[in-house]
Amino acid sequence: MNAAVPIAGNRFVIIGGASLVGSATAGELLDHGAAEVVLFDNFAFGSEDAIAHLRDNPRLRLVRGDVMRLPDLLRALEGAQGALLLAAHMTLSMDRDPWGGLDVNIRGVQNALEACRVNRVRKAVFASSNAVYGYGPNVSGELVEGTPFHTVGVPPAAVIYGATKIIGEALCRDYHRKHGLDTVVLRYCTVYGERQHYRATNALFIIETLDRVRRGERPIVLGDGSETKHFVYVGDLARANRMAFAADATDVAVNASGPRPITTLELVRLVTRLAGGGPEPEFIAEDRGRVRLTSGGAFRIAHEEAARTIGWRPEVDMEEGLRRLIAWRAGNEPRPAAG
Ligand SMILES: NC(=O)c1ccc[n+]([C@@H]2O[C@H](COP(=O)([O-])OP(=O)(O)OC[C@H]3O[C@@H](n4cnc5c(N)ncnc54)[C@H](O)[C@@H]3O)[C@@H](O)[C@H]2O)c1
Questions:
Q1: Which domains occur in the chain, in start order?
Q2: Which of 10, 29, 247, 254 is such that its CA lies 20 to 30 A from the CA of 154?
Q3: Which residue's CA is the closest to the ligand 1 atom numbered 25?
Q4: What is the DSSP letter of 147?
């Protein structure tokens, strides 16, 4: 059976659409000829600002709704061929509100998949995370799709977040097996780019570094700076989402990461240079109480499986992606989002 859902002429619903990834993906689907893109969101974290650049497009529709209310989803998904499941609490908000986070990340995903089944939506693409590998001292080297979940020494909110994504992935497989719903799971690593928000720990580190450099303060490096982080540019991810719908692949879960990882020190030096220069970084041993995601040293999130299954490879390296983020931010005043 062909699991490909062509973009042109089809209708897509992005659940949690007023988001960093949703706004970029909506533009990508519209550019590729989608008949209609519906952004379904309760605006818990998302904002009108994130989608302002799309509002004049006649093929874009905004629907206010909550993934905790199945009837909202049943209505929004009527006549849709594809659904992108983004609505979620990430680690920082899971730390503040585990009750809300567990609801949205588990029951919300189940509701969305059920609404897909009832409406005979052809394919659901689920936003999972590299958090399914966990963090901590056992995480290093090459993280491939079969790498297990590491929880030792990891902040509880990060474990809870990763576990909810594992459950979301399993719900996708369950709906595929029991109901024939085609699904592709993409395990995003930390997303950065235009319309960056303040909700993801590692991306927040980029923004905070940029802000410190701009204020003439020394940027902060936690530890000795040798620990790696692996990011992915939001435009590359929008393309991955589109390709996941259009590919014949189904019942797969693959990583979506940027071209290569970066050490914390390299990242701080790169942001400093792109911001026009600044003082030398200050090395500190520990953060001030915020959830910090550590690893056992250098790691890389492999994306070769995504190339094999959906034909996707990342294209934008960190220097170019950060240039775009910094240029976008120059025209957008910092405004921490609610939640
Ligand atoms: N941003 C990252 O670094 C990153 C990394 C890995 C995985 N992911 C995953 O990718 C997805 C999108 O990430 P993002 O950064 O674009 O997220 P985001 O925080 O910008 O967007 C999430 C959206 O979901 C909406 N939402 C929350 N609760 C809802 C509810 N009850 N009903 C309806 N809508 C609701 C929010 O208002 C928001 O617009 C998430 O599932 C996230 O877990 C993100």
A1: 11-193+231-258+300-315 (3.40.50.720)
A2: 254
A3: 16
A4: P
Closest atom of ligand 1 relative to the 23 alpha carbon = 16
Task: Give the pLDDT confidence of 96-111 residue by residue, as tens digits.
Answer: 999 999 999 999 999 9
Which of 13, 14, 19 should be mutated for ligand 1, with most atoms under 8 A from CB? 19
Work out which ligand 1 atom sits closest to the CA atom of 66: 32
Q: How far is CA 150 from CA 34, 155, 289, in A?
A: 39, 11, 22
Separation between Cα atoms, residue 28 and residue 17, nearest integer Å: 13
Query: Is residue 326 in contact with ligand 1, taking CB distance under 6 Å?
Result: no
3-state per-residue secondary structure call for 307-326: HHHHCCCCCCCHHHHHHHHH
pLDDT surpasses 90 at 137: no
Q: Which has the closest alpha carbon to 292: 143, 110, 92?
A: 92
Q: Which of 128, 193, 199 is nearest to 161 (CA)?
A: 128
Q: Give CA–CA dist 173/133, Å, rounded.
A: 18
- Inter-residue contact 191 to 20 (CB < 8 Å): yes
Residue 338 in this model has a pLDDT that exceeds 60 = no
What is this structure's pTM? 0.96
> In a mutational test of the pocket of ligand 1, which residue from 13, 14, 73, 86 has the highest number of ligand atoms less than 8 Å from its CB?
86
- C-alpha triplet 179, 183, 184: angle, nearest 5°: 165
Classify 296 as helix, strand or coil. Answer: coil
Please report which confidence band the pLDDT of residue 332 belongs to, taking 50, 70 and 90 as the band edges.
Answer: confident
Ligand 1 center to residue 276 CA distance, Å? 32
